[in-house]
Every structure is written in C-alpha cells, then in structure tokens.
Design a protein that fits this description.
Layout: E1 2-9, H1 13-24, E2 29-33, H2 40-44, H3 46-64, H4 78-89, H5 92-102, E3 106-109, E4 112-114, E5 120-122, E6 125-134, E7 138-140, H6 154-157, E8 166-170, H7 174-185, E9 189-193, H8 205-217, E10 221-223, E11 228-234, E12 237-242, E13 247-250, E14 252-255, E15 259-261, E16 275-276, E17 279-280, E18 293-295, H9 308-323, E19 338-340, E20 345-350, H10 353-358, E21 363-369, H11 374-377, E22 385-391, E23 397-404, H12 407-419, H13 424-428
The chain binds flavin-adenine dinucleotide and nicotinamide-adenine-dinucleotide (NAD).
C-alpha cells in the first residue's frame, strides 16, 4: 500500500493539470494512465487533427486565391501528411511521462480501479489517498447497428496508413464534419450521413446551414435525415444500407456519432459514486456523490462543452479546492469558445443568437455578412458571416456565432472582449494594427 494526498485517474489534459497543480502546492500525488500518456487531445484528438488541418487550410487558401494572381491548387499527399502527424504524436506519450518523471510525480501505467476500501488498484500497486480525482475522459460511441464490428472511429482515421478513395461518416457532429473535411480535401469521395435535420446541434442553425452548403459545394455527399442501419463487407469494400433502403459501397465507415464517458470498469459502485449515461454526477464543486472523490473533464455529466481548455480549467479549480484553507466558491465558467475547424470554420461563444431571440428584451442580434469586408475580401473567403449578440442595457457584446475562414481567431478576440466586459468605447481606446481581424472588432456592435 502506497500513501498519497491525491491520486488522479487519467493522464490526459484534465488529470495532468491536477497532478502538476497539486504537486506545485506540495502535495504527494500519483497519476495513473492505462493507455497513452497525454490522453486524447495530443494523441488522437485536437492536435493530430489540427496538424492534418494545416494542409487543408493551406489548400483552401490557395483555392480561393486562384482569381487573385495565384496559379495551381496543391494536392494533399496522405502518406507524407500522416508521417508529419506521427512525427508529432509518437513523441507525446514518452515526452509526457518523462515530464512526470523529472517533476518527480509518482505515475503508474495501468488501468485504475477502486477497491471496496476506497483505495485505488493500479495493476499490482495499491494506492491509498485522502482524495481521488477521476479524469478518465470519453471514448468513441459505436452505434448499435448490424455490422457494428466493421465501424472505425476517429482514433483509426487519425492514424490511417491508407485513406480509401471513398469513405463514409456516420454522424455530423464536430468529429464527423472535421474529418469529412480532411478526407474531402485529400481528394476522396466523402459521404457525411446524419440521422436528424440538425447537424452540429449546439451551433447556430443558419450558420450550420451555410456550412453544410460549403461542404456540399466542396463535393461532400451530405445526407440528412438518414439512418444507416447496416454495414457489411462487400469484396474489398463495405456496403452501407440506410433505413429507407438506399445503399452504396464505400472503403471505410467511421462512427462519428458521439462519445461516451469512460466509467464502466472503474468500480464506482464500490465507492458510492453516482453516474448517468452522460458521465459522473458532480456538484458545483466538481465533487462526486462521494465527498473525497472529484471528477473533471470529459468524463463529467455537465452541460459545458467537452473541450481541452474546459478540462484544464476544471483541473485548476480542483487544485484550488483541494489546497484552499477556506471554503471555495462554486465553479464559475467564463464564456467558452467552441470551434469546428475546416476550410470554413464555425465558431461560437457566450449567449447564442437563438437564446437572444428568445429574450429579445434583454438582447439584440447583429447579423452581419462579412464576405465583402476587407479582411475577408482580401483572402476571397467565399462566405463570412457573424451574428453578434449584444446586451441592450450595457451595449456590450455577450455572445457571437461566426462562420469564416478566420473564425478561430475572431472568436478568441471576442473571448477577451466578453471576459473583460469591454464595450466599443473601451475597444477604441486600443490602437490595433490595421488592416487585421482585430481592427474589425469596433464595428461589431
Ligand atoms: C477527434 C477529436 C478531436 C478533438 N478536437 C478538439 C479540439 O480541436 N479542441 C478541443 O478543445 N477539444 C477537442 N477534442 C476534445 C478533447 O480531446 C477532450 O475534451 C480532452 O482530451 C478532454 O481531456 P480529459 O483529460 O478530460 O480526457 P482525455 O484526454 O480523454 O484523457 C483521459 C485519459 O484517461 C485514461 N483512462 C481512462 N480510463 C482509465 C483508467 N481506468 N485508469 C487509468 N487511466 C484511464 C485514458 O486512457 C485517457 O488517456 C477532440 C476530441 C476528439 C476525439
Ligand atoms: N473542434 C473541437 O473542439 C472538437 C472536435 C472534435 C471533437 N470535439 C469534442 O468531442 C466531442 C465528441 O464529438 P462527436 O462529433 O463525436 O460528437 P457530437 O455529439 O458533437 O456529434 C455526434 C452527432 O452524431 C449524431 N448521431 C448520433 N447517432 C447517430 C447515428 N446513429 N447516425 C447518424 N448520426 C448520429 C448526433 O445527433 C450528434 O449530432 C464533442 O462534443 C466535442 O466536445 C471537439
């Protein structure tokens, strides 16, 4: 039995934020990881996806500038791109582990599980701690259809030696839209199949429709209101069949129909930790139904989007909660930006235009077509639009939804504007380099 102040289950962005934070405060901590040190984001999520996306973005920039004195659109070389991705990801687990080693943070490579006495079993090691933090994340959900065993996931896509000529994505959420965009840019025939009429449900419906039009214009076969019911081998390929009886052959089918919390094998019932189908139940101090066990990041059942910066923020909150001498306030989140990356990026933050329309006494919405604004005309962005939500009483921006090739930058500027409660007078106090995206900020409200 080894004794610690805090044991952390999961060595992803959430768990590592807790481990380093508590270690810096002088706690004896141990972190347990069953698979790849670093977790989903740097190994098989955000970072590898964004490495592939760099080539997609460069290709898109070249394509739109064909009428702008540029000749020729570069082609994606999948093996070379994958080699670049692997050069990055292959270093992550070792680099993360050696970081823990040099910080002298105890770490165990094993699937952790609670024992009935509340200790944590990590392989042959039994770890006893005053508190435990669960940060075990989510894993891809495989829909229950005939031929489920033939479905691949984002983990497979992001490490494919060979990308088939024709691929199908089942589910048009973040993962489906982003990976479909990459496969399409690599010159593959792509089917993006969604079961309802509302892909990317958390985002503004008008802007999602604009994005779907962009995906279709790029040649992606977007099928809404379509249920895939069967996948079966057909020679070297797979045959996909829908509920309406339509069918086609495709090289690979990827389940991009959401992710599920990793909770099944943790022995949570032994330690009185309640869960729902969405994850671990926590209060507004991120404490589970067992007061000595906390949970953070993708594994928790909370309404905040499941994103790396959110996992890190929750990790830092738990560090404060476990080291403060006085009682800490409930967790309060700043406005959280989310971005669906691609040739056209879709981003959102704060009060949504839909919420604003429901409460039009409090908010107004500026729906601006930015396509002909200099910043977007310069790069020949085919469609740039922003809906800015403004609080009537203060005149301040409190939310926005953006579609453009530059949305990831615009949304981060707006994150500062919203967080710092800047009104247009305050923004005008700064001299911002012109002509840039930042210098557009004063015209949004
Ligand atoms: C394809 C894809 C793209 C994404 N892109 C973005 C993006 O662009 N931006 C963004 O912000 N977010 C993105 N995300 C989401 C982001 O990866 C997650 O929000 C983030 O990784 C959550 O961190 P976490 O620490 O909660 O969980 P994870 O990173 O999933 O880490 C949990 C860790 O716990 C380990 N574990 C599980 N069970 C046990 C056990 N019993 N014992 C020990 N260890 C265990 C797992 O192996 C894993 O390493 C993406 C996700 C995917 C899948
Ligand atoms: N850019 C980013 O920040 C980024 C990128 C990828 C993933 N993520 C994170 O990972 C999480 C998971 O992403 P995701 O795309 O897997 O999930 P998601 O929940 O965003 O989307 C899955 C979609 O699939 C649909 N669906 C469910 N069952 C289906 C079926 N049988 N057939 C067709 N469609 C079906 C759902 O209605 C949903 O719209 C996201 O919520 C996000 O937090 C973030």
């Amino acid at each position: 039995m080894q004794q610690f102040d805090t044991v952390i289950l999961g060595g992803g962005p959430g768990g590592l934020a807790v481990a380093y934070g508590l270690h810096a405060q002088g706690q004896r901590v141990a972190v347990v990881e069953k698979d790849l040190w670093g977790g989903t984001c740097p190994n098989r999520g955000c970072d590898p996806k964004k490495i592939l996306m760099a080539a997609v973005e460069a290709q898109a920039r070249s394509a739109t500038l064909q009428s702008h004195g540029l000749n020729g659109v570069p082609q994606l070389d999948w093996p070379a791109l994958m080699a670049k991705k692997r050069a990055y990801t292959s270093m992550i687990p070792g680099g993360t582990e050696s970081g823990l080693k040099s910080a002298e943070i105890a770490h165990f490579h094993a699937a952790a599980r609670f024992n009935a006495d509340g200790s944590v079993q990590a392989g042959k090691d039994q770890l006893k701690a005053t508190n435990v933090v669960i940060a075990t994340g989510q894993a891809p959900r495989l829909p229950h259809i005939a031929g489920q065993e033939w479905l691949r996931t984002s983990n497979d896509f992001l490490d494919l030696d060979h990308l088939p000529d024709d691929v199908t994505f089942m589910g048009a959420g973040y993962v489906g839209v982003e990976l479909a965009t990459i496969a399409n840019a690599a010159g593959r025939q792509v089917h993006l199949v969604h079961h309802s009429d509302r892909p990317l449900r958390a985002f503004d419906a008008d802007l999602v429709q604009d994005l779907m039009s962009r995906l279709k214009a790029a040649g992606i076969d977007v099928q809404l209101m379509t249920d895939i019911v069967k996948v079966e081998p057909d020679g070297d390929e797979y045959r996909v069949t829908t509920k309406s009886g339509a069918s086609w052959t495709t090289g690979m089918v990827f389940a991009s129909a959401g992710r599920l919390p990793v909770i099944a094998d943790l022995g949570l019932d032994q330690v009185n930790v309640a869960t729902t189908t969405h994850g671990i139940t926590v209060n507004d101090h991120l404490q589970t139904t067992n007061p000595h066990i906390f949970a953070i990041g993708d594994v928790v059942d909370r309404p905040q989007p499941k994103l790396t910066p959110v996992a890190g923020y929750e990790g830092r909150y738990v560090v404060t909660a476990l080291t403060a001498t006085d009682a800490v306030d409930p967790i309060h989140y700043p406005a959280i930006p989310s971005v669906v990356y691609g040739k056209s990026q879709l981003a959102q933050i704060g009060v949504t235009p839909e919420q604003a329309q429901r409460d039009s006494q409090t908010y107004r919405v500026n729906d601006l077509d930015l396509t002909h604004w200099f910043s977007y005309q310069r790069i020949e962005d085919p469609k740039a639009r922003i809906k800015v939500v403004i609080e009537r009483a203060s005149g301040r921006i409190v939310g926005a939804a953006v579609l453009s090739m530059e949305a990831e930058q615009v949304i981060n500027y707006l994150a500062f504007v919203i967080q710092q409660k800047l009104d247009s007078v305050a923004i005008n106090q700064s001299i911002l380099a012109y002509p840039t995206l930042a210098s557009d900020l004063t015209y949004f409200n």
